[in-house]
Write a structure and sequence with these properties.
binds protoporphyrin IX containing FE; Peroxidase, domain 1; two-stranded antiparallel ribbon; Peroxidase, domain 2; glycoprotein; two-stranded antiparallel sheet; mainly alpha
């Protein structure tokens, strides 16, 4: 009798879970140590049935966008980071000002700085044609970040999917949670710890600065007044310092740009770490990974400078970790039709 009861219960649970998995791919129903109760997790197969061509669509839009503007790869990689550090990876960064929304686009770290929104719109409109209201804007950001890395010569990874989009944004969290370029190593570690990321993630993810550029205003202090004594940062290598001064004058020129990795600005490689070892990291936050007094980050910079595949492996793992920050899943959030507005 007991056996029949258990078998019956198991059958009901099985049918329920198949039904729910079809309605909500990525849904797990389980019992046992790892899946106690019901959980909606991210999974690489999330769109396997509902939109199998999602990644191909993202990649084809990216290829065209990067052919037109090489920098866009860097901008899209950064967009995912600035999304995930504010309320988790929920596409909150894409929302425009409206009656209910105060856009994150106007925060200190984002204003006149983050870019790539038109490419996200383009991807979204192609996805809406192919699979209406299925692929979230938060997943598009994650797919675009991975695709941009791959198309720049960097590592590939299996990307967990199934994030849903927020109905809110937080300008104040955007101001509070995104680390500033003049941060000390202690600050950087604290900003990352607050998100559940450690020193290894900090150094590996900073390696994203192997592509893209920064505006003069973000590193000017290092050239003219690093410690409030009108002197440059003593860790800057001399010829690099003189080059930077010609591109970034003491007054004005705030929006002039310099590559974060001038050795190979378009190539995703480990040159960024090699440059830091030679006093040629552009931002203070880059340089302190080596020169700050945290032994672990210092050693990691040296390791990644020596061993590109180690950097690639860790970058991929840390991107997955960052991409898993507080996602909305299951019945939370929504799949926006237009990434700039809630439905
Ligand atoms: C560790 C703390 C970090 C700080 C302080 C920082 C700061 C900055 C700053 C100030 C810029 C230049 C922005 C401008 O001038 O408008 C920049 C650019 C960039 N950041 Fe970071 N960043 C950090 C971590 C990251 C992470 C974790 C990623 C991605 C995983 C990332 C990806 C990028 C990329 C790709 C660019 C170039 C964007 C472009 O050319 O449009 N950064 N970052």
């Amino acid at each position: 009798m007991h056996f029949i009861k258990v078998t019956l219960l198991a059958m009901i649970a099985f049918f329920l879970s198949v039904k729910l998995s079809l309605a909500h791919p990525g849904f797990h129903f389980g019992w046992g140590d790892h899946h106690r109760g019901i959980s909606f997790g991210l999974s690489p197969q999330f769109y396997q049935f509902s939109c199998p061509q999602a990644n191909d669509i993202v990649m084809s839009v990216l290829e065209k966008a990067i052919a037109k503007d090489m920098r866009i790869a860097a901008s899209l990689l950064r967009l995912h980071f600035h999304d995930c550090f504010v309320q988790g990876c929920d596409a909150s960064i894409l929302l425009e000002d409206s009656a209910r929304i105060v856009s994150e686009k106007n925060s200190g770290p984002n204003k006149n700085s983050v870019r790539g929104f038109e490419v996200i719109d383009k991807i979204k409109s192609k996805l809406e044609e192919a699979c209406p209201q299925t692929v979230s804007c938060a997943d598009i950001l994650a797919l675009a970040a991975r695709g941009s890395t791959v198309l720049s010569g960097g590592p590939n990874w299996e990307l967990p999917l199934g994030r849903r989009d927020s109905k809110t944004a937080s300008l104040s969290d955007s101001n509070k949670n995104i680390p500033p370029p003049n941060a000390t190593i202690e600050n950087l570690v604290t900003f990352f710890k607050r998100q559940g990321l450690d020193e290894v993630d900090l150094v590996a993810l900073s390696g994203a600065h192997t592509i893209g550029v920064a505006r003069c205003v973000t590193f000017k202090q290092r050239l003219y007044n690093q410690k409030g004594n009108n002197q440059p940062d003593e860790n800057l290598e001399k010829s690099f310092y003189f080059d930077l001064k010609t591109m970034c004058p003491k007054s004005g020129g705030d929006n002039f740009i310099s590559p974060l990795d001038f050795g190979s600005p378009r190539m995703f490689d480990n040159t960024y770490f090699k440059l830091i070892l030679r006093g040629k990291g552009l931002l203070n936050s880059d340089e302190v990974l080596l020169m700050g007094n945290v032994k672990e980050t210092r050693e990691l910079v040296k390791k990644y400078a020596q061993d590109e595949s180690l950097f690639f492996e860790q970058f991929a793992m840390s991107m997955i970790k960052m991409g898993n920050l507080r996602p909305l899943t299951g019945f939370n959030g929504e799949v926006r039709k237009n990434c700039r507005r809630v439905n």
